[in-house]
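Suppose you are handed a protein chain with no further information: no name, no annotation, nothing but its sequence. What can you learn? This example shows the usual starting point.
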Amino acid sequence: MSGNRTSGAASGDRFSTKGFIMAAIGSSVGLGNMWKFPYITGKHGGAAFFLLFIVCLIVVGLPILLAEMTIGRGGRGNASTSFLKLTGKKYWGAFGLLSVITAFLIMSYYAVVAGWTLHYTVESFSGMLFQSGVDYKSKFASFAGGYLPLLWQAVVMAICGWVLARGVSGGIEKFNTFLIPGFFIILVVLMLRSLTLSGAGEGVRFFLQPDFSKLDAESMLIALGHAFFSMSLGMGCMLTYGSYVSAQQSLGAATLAIGAGDLLYAFIAGLVIFPTVFSFGLEPGEGVGLAFMALPAAFSRMPFGLLFGGLFFLLLAIAALTSAISILEVPVAYSITKWKWTRKKAALYVSIVCFLVGVPSALSVGGVLGSFQPGGKTVFDWVDFATAYILMPLGGLIVTLFTAYVWKRAGEEAGLSGFWYRAWMTLLRYVSPILIILVFLYSVGLIRF
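A reasonable first move is to predict its three-dimensional structure. Written in structure tokens, the prediction is:
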């Protein structure tokens, strides 16, 4: 691959059937399912919300996932040129370019968070993290407010760049095929440890006890939003991966496998998080506070906490890296085609520029740029908000409308006909666009309940 001046799709570098499924699951298995999904499930009705999430995944997540992969394989190009090749219209290539920009911006700050997970993994296994009397909130603030996160951000970019430089089959596929099985083994080990803790039942009840009275319109929009975001939709990842899939691969079967993997991960993650949190009398929460403050406090008081805490942060690091690689591949694939770079050159240049763009985000989480908050948000928060709540839904809407109304051979490329094709088109034409717009309006605060 090193001397090839074409993208993986054009050069014939392809995923194997197993490798594609692993890579796609690796892309969808991200940090959100670990530190967000369990909490919103417990807060909005437990098993009742989980069932609602499955419905939303079927109605919105899977149809758009299939659409993205179908465009990628049909166009055999990057997130921009696939649209152009399928229509011959330059403005569709411009629409596709939006996904490339979105992925680049997401990677600029996602690498910062991935770096935190690597730092905490090393600190966990070294025994430096779990010590008696530690204020984990202050510890995280001290770490995030310094310059060390820049080092770990650079490490993440170096790992991702190295994997991508090795190509599709030799880099992305091998990396995910090695890590994803190990990821699920660690996840199951942590689940078994959590479920055997004293008082674990209370956490399981918080997570899974069905309470349909807590379901409302807001719950539906939250479930819809998470179904969309958890599948890495709207940023070109699955479209780009789809361009590396062989013509013999069943995209329908792949879509179901990826959705099942995403669901399984989210479910087991909840059985890791909440039995642990409730067993040690901690408040259930989400996000950074849960992963880097509450759970370290629990592991520090747990027998063999150094081991299980280390495994937990290793789990987070794997989830972050496999997702980060799929995100970075979007601008790398674009650069190879746009500027005729070799894959190694594209991986190197894009990684360096992405790191530099992400420096302000890294330094705004309590660091020297922490006080710079235009509109009440830090640089990190603004990039997160712009990508997650504006650019990703817009990208998903473009994919939906393109597949439903513009590209006439989508069903043939997807391998769908008869009832399944009609059902897919009905969802893409009349259901998904409306729901994406509603999620967008709710996310930016224009709809409130």
